[in-house]
Predict the structure of Transport permease protein.
Amino acid sequence: MRQSLRNPFWVVIGIVQPFLYLALFGPLLIPIVQSTPGFPPGDAWQVLVPALLIQLGLFGGLFVGFSILTEFKAGVVERMQVTPVSRVALLLGRALKETAVLLTQGVLLTVLAIPFGLRAPVGGVVVGLALVAVLGFAASSASYALALRVKTEEAFLPIVQSVFLPLLLLSGILLPMSIAPAWLFALSRVNPFVYVVDATRAVFVGDLFSATALVGIGVALVLAAASLLWGVRTFQRESA
């Protein structure tokens, strides 16, 4: 965290892409929401902003493995692994730092969305940001584990990109999957992130205890637990 605080510029850089979606795509979504049946409850900003927050968590978390690859080549990871430090701590220290950065970016993005017209209950915004934090933790842990397994940028980048694009398109981030054709909607149901996106949209309109919200929260927690387990085992295996 001290490293991040020394250069907070990267926190701002991280929200540039979501802000461009907010400024350049959001106004286009307003007439579509008003004229297209099947959209989730809420206005255009209650549909778009939660999705951008999830995109921020996914995009910011999945690519953090590049940092540990740099440290791996420099021998930093190897020196840390021969210390008596807990392997859980080695992973948590990194993943929680990335989660804190993503949460800060999420708060900034939510505040920037208010002048555009975002109106959401405070409780829903808090729960939505918590979902972003959990998802960011899961993505960061998985990214670190994958990076330690492949050990090279040449292998890491194609894998992440080939996984990220289908997850992005099938999660309903750009447009809700509720307006998709039946076959595409059915295909999206195998993507766990679509449930987190739907849950975030639900809490932004105040449906904190709806089935959609509870299922999405449960999926996010399961993803975080599975990613943490994978990451810890990978750190332990690399130390053996």
